[in-house]
Design brief:
Layout (H helix, E strand, L loop, with lengths): L1 E7 L2 E6 L3 E5 H4 L12 E4 L3 E12 L7 E4 L2 E3 L6 H7 E13 L3 H8 L9 H4 L7 H9 L2 H6 L9
Parallel strand pairs: 4-8
Antiparallel strand pairs: 1-2, 2-8, 3-4, 5-7, 5-8, 6-7
Amino acid sequence: MVLIAEHTDEGALGLVLNRPSETTVGDAVPQLEELVDPEEHLFIGGPVQPSAVIVLAEFEDAVDAALIAFDDIGVLGAEASLEDAGAGVRSGRAFVGHAGWGPGQLDSELERGDWIREPARREDAFTSEPRELWTEVLTRKGGSYALIARMPPDPSVN
């Protein structure tokens, strides 16, 4: 499940919302404890820049975000001081790496129908059950998507 945080003529940036790692934020990046619960798992945001950390946050004021994905949910800027950012962040989630597309690449994939699209909700970005997110969103979308949501991981064993 990918949340697209930015989509422009220059390309797109997204975060995989349903892939928590085994490592906690406190163990991996303790300096983020002002923004993210140290007991929360660090998420694998995608294959691009796997050593970079991105914080997806719910901001008190959306203008404080470097990128806004929707509403007041966005990405904390790399240049933001953690002390200042902590005051304007209601909740946060840390990701290593991100998903990325070059100019026109995501547009082409969308035109071909390669993606199932559904508007993101606040509870999607910060779900307490990330491994169930795919099923929840497909069920919410309804119709034949709800049928796909109930399929076993390997239909051949059904």
